[in-house]
Amino acid sequence: MTAKVIYTGGLRTNCEHIRSGNSFITDAPLDNQGLGQAFSPTDTVATGLASCMFSVMGIKARGLELDLENSTAEVIKHMEADPRRITRIDVKFNMPKIISDKHRKILEHTARTCPVHYSLHPDIVRNITFQWDL
Question: Known SUPFAM superfamilies for this protein (predicted)?
Fold first, then answer.
């Protein structure tokens, strides 16, 4: 088992990672009857894309002896009302400027091959940009 999700009432869940015991809550968003006090389930999907892209870039960077520490990603999730679903995810990566052009291309390609990127429905537009100025 990967995770255990408990519905705690009030449109909230508690999500526990079995192996580590770490947990987080989700809350329905304000525009869908929730309090918006935590990540919504669709927020976790959009954020998971950026997190996964960082993970595979980190693996590649380790092999290339590059340091990506303190890089950031800004995530914007776009929703459609009927049917309610994610239509677009914008991810803007802010990366170290000391990375060479050759390694930038390698890292950008690697990011776009992450498992979450491949797992999202093809109708979800992914607008991925890289800013190399940290």
Answer: OsmC-like
